[in-house]
Amino acid sequence: MERLRRFSWFERIKTGPSPDDDGLLRITRELAELFDVRVWYKGILWGRFERGGLGWMISKPVSPFYPGTLTIRGPSFESELILPEYLKGKLSMDSWRFLIGLHMVRLHANLTSGRFAKIFGVGVLPILGTFTLGVILQHVIGGPWGFAIFNAVWLPGFLPTLLYARSRLGRWELELDREAAGKLGTDGIIRVLEQMKVLDPRANPSTIQARFAAFWNVSIDDRLEALKRPWSGIPRRSWRPTVGLRLRAALVGIGFAIFWSSGFAANLVYGQGRTGFACTNTGCAVLVVSAAVGYWLAILAGLSLVIGIIQHLRRSRSMSTRTEG
Predict the structure, then answer these.
(1) Could you tell me the residue range of the domain that residue 267 belongs to?
(2) Domain count of the chain?
(3) What residues does 80 pair with on adjacent strands?
(4) Which of 92, 85, 115 lies closest to 24, judged by CA?
């Protein structure tokens, strides 16, 4: 294990300790309990990094095979909190409390919420749609022009996916800031964000690559503006209809039915009893594309069904806990 640690990514960026490590560790454990993060922090580490992590820092598991530590709240995984070297000695303990709180609220959301999976699932639909259309057009047109049409139709599907993810993740980022401010205080969160606007090297990008990377993230100015505005506390209604568990299960069945029937029809009409054959006409290609669409519909609907069941069980457990309390 020690040999593996010597060649890990952290060993290449690790720096020395700080006199404030004991105080930072105490604050980290208190905030982990406040935000219900089921992680037991073993220590504070420092490293030279500017990107990665959640809220300017990284919670690194001690070992993915370690069973964890038994605490008052139950079993918790052991982790080490890695802080960026450029912040060493630059913040007071009070500012560190708010900054670590921003990390904890994001860590809790990533560990317990299925929102990221939802955003990814919805965002991948344009890519699948343009890919299916591109395959159909390629088989209809054929030749080098067909391949060119396929790329021209499929590749632009990534743009709406990226823009959708940027919009949804950005709104989620602002909501997490508001949640941290509700527990720790808005004035303190605003103060530490104003400090990070000066200390964070990414806050003032100077190169084209840095500006391009900053475009896909919510800027500190936007986060400050959102915190200073009055917050109604009422989420906006979504334009997407609510998909229940029964409809998701039905979509799984429909997807597998399309997949099986398309394959059966292709084998019956074009296979003529052979175990393998190549599609040489448009009709066979359409059946193959239809089978692929049914396959991915079943897979995505199945993933959505599993996520929905997990969320339903969590809500039921939360309601029963409130009732007993």
Answers:
(1) 244-318
(2) 3
(3) 43, 60
(4) 92
Is the residue at 203 inside a domain? yes
Question: Could you give the CA distance from residue 203 to residue 186 in angstroms, rounded to a whole number?
Answer: 21
Residue 46: name the closest of 20, 80, 89, 85 by CA.
Answer: 85
Check if the beta carbon of residue 177 is closer than 8 Å to that of residue 189: yes
108 and 126 inside one domain: no
If DSSP codes are grouped into helix, strand and coil, which group holds residue 15?
coil
pLDDT of residue 234: 38
CB-based contact 315:307 (threshold 8 Å): no
Backbone phi and psi for residue 225, each to the nearest 5 degrees, phi listed first: -60, -40
Exposed (0-12), middle (13-18) or buried (19+): which is 242, by Cβ within 10 Å? exposed
Q: How far apart are CA 91 and CA 85, in angstroms?
A: 12
Closest CA to 138 of 123, 149, 125: 149
Strand 39-47 relative to strand 69-71, pairing: unpaired
Name the band, by pLDDT with cuts 50, 70 and 90, for residue 110: confident
Question: How far apart are alpha carbons 284 and 270 in whole angstroms?
Answer: 7
pLDDT over 50 (residue 213): yes
With beta carbons less than 8 A apart as the criterion, state whether 46 and 16 touch. yes
CATH number of the domain residue 86 falls in? 3.30.2010
Are 160 and 229 members of one domain? yes
Mean pLDDT of the chain: 79
